Amino acid sequence: AQTVTQSQPEMSVQEAETVTLSCTYDTSESDYYLFWYKQPPSRQMILVIRQEAYKQQNATENRFSVNFQKAAKSFSLKISDSQLGDAAMYFCAYRLYNQGGKLIFGQGTELSVKP
Amino acid sequence: KAGVTQTPRYLIKTRGQQVTLSCSPISGHRSVSWYQQTPGQGLQFLFEYFSETQRNKGNFPGRFSGRQFSNSRSEMNVSTLELGDSALYLCASSSDRYGSPLHFGNGTRLTVT
User: pLDDT, tens digit, for every residue of B45-70?
Assistant: First the structure.
């Protein structure tokens, strides 16, 4: 069975600094997607970044980038130039290629940003 | 485009009752998935509907059911409510069952007393 582990329940970063959130996953499949979602107090899950497993190049979205290590089954999220609005719960998620809307989530990392 | 809309936002029910939650996906999206979020269990997949057919199901008892209509709107029903069903229920939609990302609604907060 596929599992996703986020080993950091809480993280803190100074505004304008860089922070990295860790995620590891376990799967025997080769075709899958990985995601980072952000959930602010408003409760809505917002897609931050997405990575296709077949792509070697790490995905980037503005200040957000990932370090995808397929062999190590590691998928960390780096947030550069942190802003107060980045404070939220961050979830790492795994989705098998043909499993449609079935995401397997990690337990989440609560990120606080200090001014 | 309007986002995923879930109604109601808050719901309080008594143990033993049943409840129906509604989800309207983004226009053009045919896949709708439901998740339960609790502090103890985190985010757990309930089921997925695509073109009015259930395509995937999580590990939940039969008290949890759903359906999807021809306009892709979906409903989730929980019968014989238990205290442990108190949770945030999230709905997500996507345009297909493969590469497209899931877009989530704001959720329905269900409290069972």
Answer: 999 999 999 999 999 999 999 999 99
